[in-house]
């Protein structure tokens, strides 16, 4: 079993509505995806949005990522976000980790995703968790 966390920060309020539509569709997809144990989302400072999921296997996570609507949403990150980071890790229990654990894992092992207009933090290769 594994957990995955993603933090995205929109670079402008003008992307909020289309982002919310894509995020809602992707969340519904995840909830109904084979092998999904659970899904949590949250908003932190400014326009930062987080998703935390748990999966029966990496194959289940990969299947979810490769299908619409998530697959169609991914290219939007490049122009809409100025910060984007993700990571996943093995979990022992069949439940979602807490946000403290997810944040810690993101800081330890996060992989920055490519964005067109990176923030100063993203450009410096640093991960923000606000």
Count of individual beta strands: 5
Read across the widest sheet, the strand sequence of neighbours is 2-3-1-4-5
Instruction: Specify Rg, calculated over alpha carbons.
Output: 14 Å
Count of domains: 1
Helix percent band: 25-40%
Summing up helix and strand content along with how strands pair, one would put the structural category as: alpha+beta
- Named at the architecture level, the CATH assignment is 2-Layer Sandwich
In percent terms, what proportion of residues is strand?
25-35%
CATH class: Alpha Beta
Mean pLDDT: 97
**Which consecutive residue ranges, at least 5 long each, have pLDDT under 50?**
none
What would you say this structure looks like, in words?
- Strands 2-3-1-4-5 form a five-stranded antiparallel sheet, sandwiched between helices.
- Strand 2 and strand 3 form a beta hairpin.
- The chain has one domain: Alpha-Beta Plaits, CATH 3.30.70.
- The chain is an alpha+beta fold and 130 residues long.
- Helix 1 runs antiparallel to helix 3.
- Helix content is 39%, strand content 28%.
Helix and strand arrangement:
Layout: E1 2-10, H1 16-32, E2 36-43, E3 48-55, H2 58-65, H3 70-80, E4 81-90, H4 99-109, E5 111-112, H5 120-123
Antiparallel strand pairs: 1-3, 1-4, 2-3, 4-5
Helix pairs in contact: 1-3
């Amino acid at each position: 079993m594994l957990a995955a966390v993603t933090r995205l920060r929109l670079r402008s309020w003008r992307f909020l509505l289309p982002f919310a539509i894509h995020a809602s569709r992707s969340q519904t997809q995840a909830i109904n995806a084979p092998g999904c144990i659970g899904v949590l989302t949250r908003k932190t400072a400014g326009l930062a949005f987080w998703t935390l999921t748990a999966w029966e296997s990496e194959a289940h996570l990969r299947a979810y990522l490769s299908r619409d609507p998530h697959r169609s949403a991914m290219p939007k990150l490049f122009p809409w976000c100025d910060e984007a980071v993700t990571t996943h890790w093995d979990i022992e229990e069949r439940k979602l980790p807490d946000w403290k654990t997810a944040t810690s894992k993101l800081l330890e092992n996060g992989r920055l995703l490519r964005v067109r207009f990176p923030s100063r933090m993203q450009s410096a290769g640093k991960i923000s968790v606000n």
